[in-house]
Design a protein that fits this description.
The chain is of the alpha/beta class. It contains 11 helices and 8 strands. Helix content is 48%, strand content 15%.
Amino acid sequence: MKFVAILLILLVAGLSISTWLIVRDIEREFPPIGDFKTINGVKMHYVEAGIEKDTSKPAIVFIHGASGNLRDQMPVYKPRLERDFRLVFLDRPGHGYSDPFDGSNDPKRQADSISKLLTELEIEKAIIVGHSFGGVVTGAFGVLHAEKTAGLVFLAPVSHPWGTGVDWHYDLGNTPILGWLFSRLLLPSVGSYVYPKAIQNVFRPNPMPADYRETSGTRLSLRPSNFHENAKDVARVENHVSAFHERYQEIKAQTVIFHGDQDDIVSLEIHSINGLSKDIEDAKLIILEDVGHKPDYIAADQIEAEIRRIAELSK
């Protein structure tokens, strides 16, 4: 028994050191690149880009998905839009370098924090662009903060109940004690091994951009704190949409939904065809042929065009 205890201690110590080294390397490669404001009691990390304040046109706010951060959409849309719009890229609470909330981190609370961040930045109206899990926050923002919503752009969005649960590692990450041990001892090492294949799968069947790993900063999601908050988000989101999705009918802002017909991560039929496009009056649904879960990259030209169209209509 003593020998087994010593082996366990050595194993835990080894895994702890491995986690520390991996996290150190990730944070060196992807340090904070924006500014911070304390919103609702937590520190939020964001990047502002583009033109100075111009009340004649809305700002554009980008909300990343699960396992993401503000770097994900920024390489695509900053160079496309910064000459004509004020842009805000942000880390959702608990992701990237934004602090997590104490207790509930549901999409309504995240939308409230984004709204208050916009108030702090003196942004009166914005087009909200949300990818995947960012879509459910976008929907909550459109309902709860209609006065600030110039338009909504959903990209492969989560929005409605789907009934089949989530991947096992999200459930494990939420398990008391075991989840804590998994996220701090095993996840960084195991995750680093599967990460290259995992990010390629997010793009499937489309090719992943050659520089995506370097530009997206998605390795930040392997840090224990980020993984744990992400697991909470994903494991609990169906409870939110089950209770909230009927409120999408309240949205009156210009709305566009992009969804790939080859998306095997978020169901086109459940969330976009039978979901948002039916719930939101006059919503424009664009089904992208042969596109997977990353329309933000694969259909960037079309998405940019729709953002600009909504901005023109909002004048």
